[in-house]
Amino acid sequence: MKKASQEKLNLLKEIEAKIEKYKNIVIFHHIRPDGDCLGSQFGLKYLIKENFKDKNVYTIGDPKGSFPYLNFPMDNLENKPINNSLAIIVDANFKNRIECREYLDNNTFNDVIRIDHHPNDDDLNASLRWVEPEAPAAAQQVAELAYKLKWKINEEAATYLYLGIYTDSVRLTTSTTNEKTMFLVSELWKHGAKKDLIHNEMMKKTLEDIKISAFVQQNMQIKNKVVSFYFSLNDQKKLGIIDPLKANRPFLLANIDDNKIWVFFTEEDKNKIRCEFRSNGPCVRNVAIKWGGGGHHRASGAQIDDEKNIPLIIKDCEKEILNIKDYD
Ligand SMILES: [Mn+2]
Questions:
Q1: Residue 192: left if φ>0, alpha if ψ -120 to 50, beta else—which one?
Q2: How far is the CA of 297 from the centre of ligand 1 (A)?
Q3: What's the 308 CA to ligand 1 centre distance in angstroms?
Q4: Where do the CATH 3.90.1640.10 domains begin and end in the chain?
Q5: Any idea which of 29-33, 57-61, 119-123 has the lowest mean pLDDT?
Q6: Which CATH class is domain 6-202?
Q7: What separation in Å is there between the alpha carbon of 74 and the centre of ligand 1?
């Protein structure tokens, strides 16, 4: 891996100095938890516990049963000011995207820092930010932090961080996955990341999954290089999906012929439709932002309240494809 610039190294050292300064460290994850936010949260927790033994490290939030083959034990903290405390936000930016935001609203902590690969601004009042949109996962940033600062990486930290990198990089295939990613992955494997467990668990599928895939792929729409699908609560119910958070499957629409954007709409409640945008080139973030959401260039999300807007959003995706020459 290339040597870090002095500027980058200074930033990492500033993060370390903050961790050294405070006795109580509380790490957050984002709502709709994924492998990266939980992996960076718990990876960082086990790194701090291993390398700074006198710290109290707390993880707060709700993993919602994700990745049940790994443990994500959350702490119960009273929502009142904590002396000598530092909040670390990983993989998130705005408070409305953060689980347990009420602690931040209450100014529970003496200091707040953010480690994130989303390019967006934040409203965290953070004293220190390490924002690196080039990183395929926030967990890669945490792994880099440990490597560059020569922290000891234990098996737990390695496993959680590998989960974060492997999931957010779509199994090490996104265009942001590069030699730095692979170098850090090899470090995590070297330090005992449970890669076979993660790979095997992620390969598993159920008969129910197969039936859902068949339904989605039979009913998706394709027009002007945009693939789309709307999953109504009614259809979810017919297929045995009880929790709409488990209905959302944009990957089923991915990379079909030479289509450029795929967007998966999930009805989650009355007047609450989740839109997940993905692309293999066009900037879907532009469309997501227009509809009140945000995210990355090739993977973004938004929430709308009216099914009638779906055709308009698809039209916006079609238009966005015409801008592809701007960045490809
Ligand atoms: Mn992420």
A1: left
A2: 13
A3: 30
A4: 6-202
A5: 119-123
A6: alpha beta
A7: 19
